[in-house]
Amino acid sequence: MRNKGHSTRKADITRKTKETDVRVMLHLDGQGKYAINTAIPFLDHMLSLMCKHGLFDIRLKATGDIEVDDHHTVEDVGIVLGKALKQTLGDMKGISRYGEATVPMDEAIASVSVDISGRPYLVYRVQFPKKSKIKKFDPDLVEDFLQAFVSNSSITLHVESPYGRNTHHIIEAVFKALGRALRQAVSIDPRVKGVPSTKKVL
Q1: What confidence tens digit (pLDDT) does each residue in 18-30 have?
Q2: What gap in Å lies between CA 91 and CA 196, rounded to an integer?
Q3: d(CA 52, CA 103)
């Protein structure tokens, strides 16, 4: 799929398994509008922040076996979002490719660097001050979500939070930084002719 213009950078992806049913409609060049319902309120909140700061328009509906555990739903949402991002990028001609953002959230801070490289790789260096859940949400699921997202979007992602007292604040800083870094990386630069690589392919 070729990127003939911003209006083409849209995707509608569905994944249905015995454990989950996830549909994502993504418009890469949006205004930060979102309608998200995964039945996991904290995940909805974080994805909304990512969209708002990334200026992506997203409609996302997910149902899953959360009576067993949140893991299947969180991971499958990451899978479908990753596939949607990859589809919207098409041949990746004209994109900036790299993006980075550092976002403070009160006492916490997070830095995210993105390379739309065609090579999935996650470096995740986030330490939480305590292992307690946020309501029912397990903070360890953030890494699982990001790994699924990276593996299916074929991007390289480095995430780091060197300090923070509040687990909610740390994760919020991560998702805000992710949105801003992706926004920068997927942006079209009119000076870029073809694919931004000396290899001529990503």
Answers
A1: 999 999 999 999 9
A2: 11
A3: 14
